[in-house]
Amino acid sequence: MLKKALLFIFCIMFLQACTETEKSPEVPPDDISEQPTSANENDITNNIPSIHLERNKFHSVIGWLSDDEILLILVDKGEWILKSYSVTKEEWKEIYRTNTPVIQGMIHPSKEMIVLHTSNNSSSAEVQLIHMNGVVEQSLYFESAELYMDWHPTDPNLIAFTAFYEDWSYNSVVYNGHTQEMEAIDVENPFVKWLDSENLMVFDWSETSLDGSNLKQYSIADHSIKATEWSNIIDVQNLGDSLVYIQIDEENMQFKYHLVNKSSGKSFDWVSPAVSNYSEWVIPTISIISPNSFIAFQAKEKGNKDETNEKSTIGMYSIEGEKQYGEIIERPIDCSPNGMICLGGYEKEQWINLNTLKEGKWLNILE
């Protein structure tokens, strides 16, 4: 069933925030140059070697494959190429290439699978599930103008999709790679997230997003939906073994965090100053590094985003508590699994050493 209307604004905001194997020698391609920097396993904690890419050869940095390898999408002669870059060996390895334009790529938290969203036109999409060895395990096709995906954090065979059409109506489905079946789901909010292998989390937003949402639970098995204890929710992140709920306390202008382990029930709670851009809350940047921990920013003071030009505090959070590293300018981050180095910036062109807060630029795009 198609749904429209009140979700139009949420769709725009959310989608803006998300937006055959061939081996190659493990050397940089001709259009990539490297600065001669030493990068052994000891000094990777201090810096990442600099590389230079021409703008027309660069698509995007997807993220970390391991503590040593970064996955990028490059473009060359009408082909989109998945390549990993070893920051300690300063070597490249080709994983996969396609002649279909790539929209975006994602790495599963297990680091075993990659999803590529590709499209030849504005009304359809192809999603390829690719193993790290370059083998395409499944290709899925959608009629869509935009595509939202939420990957189950521990089972790479489970993906929730929402296909949006040009009039912003949509259809949501769940793909099960174990059975290779696609099942339609009927939800009132298209941006569902996995709760566990049998249930999804659905956000029931108030008339104004500043009030947050009530969190509901949708059963894939019987298509039933029920209320949960959670209200005033602005975000939930499923880390794998743990869940972090973020609520808004509008009276005290605070974000309230509740991190809980699914099995043991052990939890850790904290608060941080709330920041908005007048029409919605600005959710603090989070980078998940393990099934029980993540790196995140916290604003130093509450207020509107255009009024807060000070640095933010960056720290690591787990069930055991928090570790604060210090203060830096907030930006999008993608942190290595060991939590030592983060890629920063909208193109992930910067590196940040969390222990020293030393930072620099490793990816140089030549215009």
Topology:
Layout (H helix, E strand, L loop, with lengths): L7 H11 L13 E3 L16 E4 L3 E7 L4 E8 L2 E8 L4 E8 L3 E6 L5 E6 L5 E8 L4 E8 L2 E6 L6 E7 L5 E7 L4 E5 L7 E2 L4 E7 L7 E7 L5 E3 L5 E6 L3 E8 L4 E8 L5 E7 L1 E2 L9 E5 L2 E6 L4 E2 L7 E7 L2 E8 L4 E3 L5 E4 L5 E4 L5 E3 L1 E4 L1
Parallel strand pairs: 2-33, 23-26
Antiparallel strand pairs: 1-2, 3-4, 4-5, 5-6, 7-8, 8-9, 9-10, 11-12, 12-13, 13-14, 15-16, 16-17, 17-18, 19-20, 20-21, 21-22, 24-25, 25-27, 27-28, 29-30, 30-31, 31-32
Strand order of the largest sheet: 3-4-5-6
Helix content: under 10%
3D shape: globular
Spans with pLDDT under 50 lasting ≥5 residues?
A: 1-42
The pLDDT mean sits at 88
Structural class: mainly beta
Main beta-sheet strand count, sense and barrel state: 4 strands, antiparallel
Distance between the terminal alpha carbons, to the nearest Å?
45 Å
Number of strands: 33
Whole-angstrom Rg: 21 Å
> How many DSSP helices?
1
What amount of the residues lies in strands? over 45%
Give an overview in words.
With 367 residues, this protein is mainly beta. It is 3% helix and 51% strand. The protein contains one helix and 33 strands. The protein has one helix at residues 8-18, and strands at residues 32-34, 51-54, 58-64, 69-76, 79-86, 91-98, 102-107, 113-118, 124-131, 136-143, 146-151, 158-164, 170-176, 181-185, 193-194, 199-205, 213-219, 225-227, 233-238, 242-249, 254-261, 267-273, 275-276, 286-290, 293-298, 303-304, 312-318, 321-328, 333-335, 341-344, 350-353, 359-361, 363-366. Strands 3-4-5-6 form a four-stranded antiparallel beta sheet, with no helix packed on it. Strands 7-8-9-10 form a four-stranded antiparallel beta sheet, with no helix packed on it. The chain has a four-stranded antiparallel beta sheet with strand order 11-12-13-14, with no helix packed on it. Residues 1-42 have low confidence and may be disordered.
